User: What shape does this take?
Amino acid sequence: MPAPSTLLAPSILSADFTRLEHSIAIATKAGADWIHCDIMDGNFVPNITFGPVIVGAIAACTPMIIDTHLMIADPDRFIEDFVKAGSHQITVHQEACPHLHRTIQFIKSLGAKAGVSINPGTSLSTLDSILPDLDLVLLMSVNPGFGGQKFIPSSIGKIQKLHEIRLQTNPQMIIAIDGGITEENAQEVVSAGADALIAGTAFFKSADPASTAAKIRAMTK
Ligand code: DX5
Ligand code: ZN
Assistant: This one.
């Protein structure tokens, strides 16, 4: 397995944007491993969030790994800007990249880790040819665009299948799961083979994020 324990990645999308530094301190206190930054362009997904300036501000507040999820069309145009802003990991969508191999090599050439995400309606088989080149796969367990949606149950089977495939092709590759992760389903997704849990609402909207994180850690050991 790529990591000895489950990686926790609060999604900044659900944080208090009037107090970003404070929100990051909450994640640090909770022992988070990555800060997940959701970049939306109003084109690939029906919502708009923020760009490299905010990612730079987040990176300046923390030594944590900045995990940038590009939900944007033609991401090649902006990858370098996000790496320069402080992203350690860049994940692009398979559905947005006609030249996925080139895009992945480009991310790596900039010194960042490279990931690919697929939507709930996209088959794992679309990743067959690129899997050996990836540092991580981000499986969407909701349709991307918004925080606070309900976990799509068929994602469990997808995690299991990807876990089996990676054992054959790329055992070091991280499987991250994104969307609707809660204290209730964390154990099931980790048992299925997920290494990294992205959680926005369940973490930042919790009355006590540190105890939520501790509970998730305890049940996913
Ligand atoms: C959805 C984003 C997710 C989102 C997760 O498009 O990619 O990262 O922030 O939020 P929750 O945990 O609220 O589903
Ligand atoms: Zn995301």
Notes: The first helix runs from residue 20 to 29. The helical segments are 20-29, 52-61, 79-84, 100-109, 155-169, 186-192, 201-204, 209-219. The two ends are 13 Å apart (CA to CA).
